Amino acid sequence: MIDLHCHILWDMDDGADSMEKTIALCRGAVKNGIRIIAATPHLTDVELIDDFLYTRNQRISELNTYLKAEKMPLKVCGGAEVYLNNHIFEAENLNEITINRSKYLLCEYSLQPFEPERALVFAEEILEQGLIPLIAHPERYPTFQRYPAIAQELRDMGAHMQVNADSLAGYLGEEIQEFAKSLLLDGTAELIATDAHDPQYRNNAILRLQEQFPPEITKDLIYWATWIAPQYILRNAEIPARPNGI
User: Fold this and answer.
1) How confident is the model at residue 113 (pLDDT cuts 50, 70, 90)?
2) DSSP of 172-193, one letter per residue?
3) Lower CB count within 10 Å: N or C terminus of the chain?
């Protein structure tokens, strides 16, 4: 599997707060069949991209060196989870924080209610900068829950979407689980990721979580959303339409 949303780097955000926890998440990833992780620390202030990149790249280099020395079958590439607010209109060098230097930018909206039109305006700005918004966990936003058509409008604009495995497993409640399921089944969302933060409380045990997915989320769909579709992003290619029957 490929995990394109993970807060695995230590001391960068509310994710792993020590190298030991980072290594524990790496071991959990390997145990669960994850072979590539995009490290996506939160970036809430786009004016601090240079400082963010310096720390992130240093951490990734150190971590990959460790993984290679320990012969762990796991690679970590760069990314960021970028909080979308009005500062995005002044942002420069967003291409430096995309997933694996592709055109795909992992984006996060507010978890507080907001005017739905703002979701479209922010995404349009990302697109005008020549990038593709990859919307993190749309099922968690109250605004999307209240106005589900917003997700489809964003998809029609050219954005892609990633749902969280713990949402599909029902850890955040039945309403969020049902919304995540519907987004995947109707093709609005194309990817599943762990959004792991901690080896104990918000880990990447995705095989265990899969056991609690709704039965409509088939093995073929999981394979598409955790392996096939993410490969296109890592290769900076357009994700094709999902084959019939998945």
Assistant:
1) very high
2) T-HHHHHHHHHHHHTTS--EEE
3) C
